[in-house]
Amino acid sequence: MSREYAVTTMVTTKISCLMSALLLTYNSPAHAQDGSARHGFWMDVALGDGLAHLSSDTLAGQNRNGIDFIFDLGWTVSSRVRAGIGVDQWTSRWGSGKQTWLTSYNLSVYYYPLAHRTLFLQAGAGGSDYSVVHVPWQFLGADRADTVYLSGSAWGATAAAGWDARLGKRVSLRPRFAYSYGSPRRLHAADGTLLATGWKQHWLSVDVGLVLHPADSW
Fold it and tell me: What domains, with CATH codes, occur in the chain?
C-alpha cells in the first residue's frame, strides 16, 4: 500500500467519523429556541487534522498529512448570520524542527440555515501563504519561525460546514469539515531566488473546536 493511499484512507475515515458525530449531535441539547436573537462577540479555537495536496508547474503533485490550528473571532449580526476574521494554519509536523506551513488569513461569513441554529455553512476568502521554515518550539499552534527557507503568497478561499453542539449557556463544541484553496504563486528562497512557479495548494481538514457565543445565543 502506498503512503499517499494510506494517508488518504486515514483522512477519509476521520471525515466519516465526523459526519457520524454531526448526526448524533442533531438530537442533543444543541437545539435552540427559535425565538431568541443573536448579537455580540464570538470566538472560536480549534485543533484538527488536515490533508494537503501540493503541486506546481514542475511538480505533478503530492499529498501530505498534517495538523490544523484555527483561531477565529468576530461579531454575530443576526439570529442566522455571524461574520469574522481568522487564521487557519496547517503544519506538516508537531513540535520543533523544519516544517511546512500553509496559512490562510480569512474574512468569513457563517450562515445557519436551520431554525434551531446548530448546522452552519461557512465561506471565507483572503490571503494564502506557503512557507518552509525552521521552528525552535511549538505549543498548541503558537509557534515562531527563526528561519524561513522559502515562501510564497497569493489569495485563497475556504468553504466549510459544521455543527454547534451546545455545552453550556454560551459555549458549544464545534466539529467542522473544511476545504481550502490557495491560488498559483511563485516560491522564492530567503535571498530572493526563484524556486518554483505555478505553486498551488488544496487541503481538506477535519477539526473540533470550542466556540464562545454571545450571551443570548440559546
Answer: 3-212 (2.40.160.20)
